[in-house]
Backbone:
């Protein structure tokens, strides 16, 4: 039996970080309060003081802190991203998660001792790309985009010595990991330009008797009946009329949930499992971390008797956006 | 955040709401504002974000008790607004149990919102600031005094 993968959990605030650590995360990932990370939402994330406290709290309990600096520097403003990298090193994070090749190069040269992870935004889907990043920038771990089947993940792992991290739970951002411009089409701002998809200032929830409409910069994204679960209005998860039919034309608003696949994920040698959701509250972090911890721990002594407990599924289903869960690309027959 | 103490999802019978609406609204508003100001005094709310709340009008409505409070943030303090002259910038509406579950950090506001148990209307960005601000509060200091919030 391979060793258990690390459980890597999101922290959008200090209480969320503590919730992750207290509920059994092996590592937490977080970002600064600015557009150097892809969850740059109002009121979220860490200033230097909260960061110091968070790092102290996690490391005192033997957990790792991974700092996401995973957006692409804006033209003429590279200095801001360099400052974020220097700050992370100064504060003593265990690793920095980067996507931009220029930044990887900067970090490697300026701080050769610092452990670097390749962000999912870096879109490396092949072992050739990953090995290149290892050779050039000393990348220690790569987070795989959510587009690979398990067999493909296994193929990557077999052909690299770089640690491999995969997504295990959370909302799906399906389009082209980190290169999606749909949000810019609607409102001129996208994850890679301002650090947020569909920023809240463009979002409108319109409650009318019997329905709720959601709009992004005026564009109708979806309409929900009173008993229907609602979702955040990103273009990719909207219902649109196409040739006379109204449906989720781009993607169903489902959540990824790999509980069922855990034994296989462990068997193929995945080093870490990541939970999405730095924009969610400490309560979500606690619920998801606790559940995945219990599932992983039940696999500590082998997978023969592993079964997914209904209580785990219920807990995860409750916090999911949209009411359905999916195994994502992991078990897709086609590629 | 253990399971020792869980708040069930409940809805008070409709007649309570109809009584609630007939009661003066100021006790709710005062209690809420006193709580928020206490949090301010204890420096639990991040100053960097408070500026975004200045002069905004907030309304919290408890559907099953019929209670309602409107307040604003001005010159460093939260203040009740007894006769609001305009629609609030941000309005919350939910049953009492949903608020209690949220305060006790038993349920996530997004979960409640997506499941349609919490209604948020008005300025979405302001809503996000408020949500993230509440999420970032370290409650332990408060919960020691309020048994309801202990977890
Ligand atoms: S529109 Fe959808 S796929 Fe594109 S960045 Fe936003 S969440 Fe991701």
Residues:
């Amino acid at each position: 039996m391979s060793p258990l993968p690390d459980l890597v959990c999101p922290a959008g605030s200090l209480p969320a970080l503590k919730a992750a650590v207290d509920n059994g995360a092996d590592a937490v990932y977080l970002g600064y309060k600015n557009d150097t990370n892809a969850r740059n939402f109002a009121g979220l994330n860490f200033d230097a003081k909260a960061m110091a406290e968070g790092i102290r709290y996690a490391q005192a309990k033997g957990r790792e802190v991974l700092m996401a600096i995973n957006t692409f520097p804006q033209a003429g403003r590279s200095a801001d991203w360099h400052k974020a990298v220097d700050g992370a090193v100064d504060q003593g994070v265990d690793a920095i998660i980067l996507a931009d090749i220029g930044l990887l190069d900067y970090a490697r040269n300026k701080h050769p001792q610092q452990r670097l992870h390749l962000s999912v935004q870096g879109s490396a889907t092949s072992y050739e790309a990953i090995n290149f990043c290892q050779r050039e920038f000393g990348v220690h771990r790569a987070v795989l985009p959510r587009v690979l089947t398990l067999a493909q993940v296994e193929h990557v792992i077999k052909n690299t010595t770089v640690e491999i991290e995969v997504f295990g739970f959370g909302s799906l951002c399906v389009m082209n990991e980190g290169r999606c411009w749909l949000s810019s089409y609607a409102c001129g701002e996208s994850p890679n330009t301002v650090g947020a998809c569909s920023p809240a200032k463009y979002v409108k929830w319109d409650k009318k008797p019997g329905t709720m409409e959601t709009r992004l910069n005026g564009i109708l994204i979806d309409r929900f009946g009173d008993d229907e679960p609602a979702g955040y209005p990103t273009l990719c998860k909207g219902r649109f009329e196409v040739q006379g039919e109204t449906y989720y034309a781009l993607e169903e608003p489902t959540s990824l949930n790999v509980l069922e696949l855990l034994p296989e994920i462990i068997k193929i040698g995945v080093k870490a499992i990541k939970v999405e959701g730095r924009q969610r509250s400490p309560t979500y972090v606690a619920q998801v971390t606790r559940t995945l911890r219990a599932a992983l721990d039940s696999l500590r002594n082998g997978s023969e008797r592993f079964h997914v407990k209904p209580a785990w599924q219920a807990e995860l289903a409750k916090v999911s956006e949209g009411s359905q869960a999916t195994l994502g690309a992991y078990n897709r027959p086609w590629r | 955040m253990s399971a020792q103490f869980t708040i069930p999802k409940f809805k008070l019978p409709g007649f309570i709401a109809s009584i609630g609406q007939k009661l003066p609204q100021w006790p709710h508003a005062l209690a809420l504002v006193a709580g928020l100001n206490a949090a301010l005094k204890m420096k639990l709310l991040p100053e960097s974000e408070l500026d975004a709340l200045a002069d905004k009008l907030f309304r919290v409505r408890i559907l099953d008790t019929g209670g309602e409070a409107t307040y604003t943030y001005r010159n460093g303090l939260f203040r009740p607004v007894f006769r609001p002259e305009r629609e609030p910038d941000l309005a919350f509406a939910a049953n009492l149990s949903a608020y209690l579950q949220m305060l006790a950090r038993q349920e996530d506001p997004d979960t409640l919102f997506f499941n349609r148990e919490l209604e948020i209307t008005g300025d979405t960005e302001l809503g996000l600031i408020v949500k993230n601000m509440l999420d970032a509060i370290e409650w332990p200091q408060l919960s020691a005094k309020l048994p309801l919030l202990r977890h």
About this structure: Chain B has one domain: 14-143. The two ends of chain B are 5 Å apart (CA to CA).
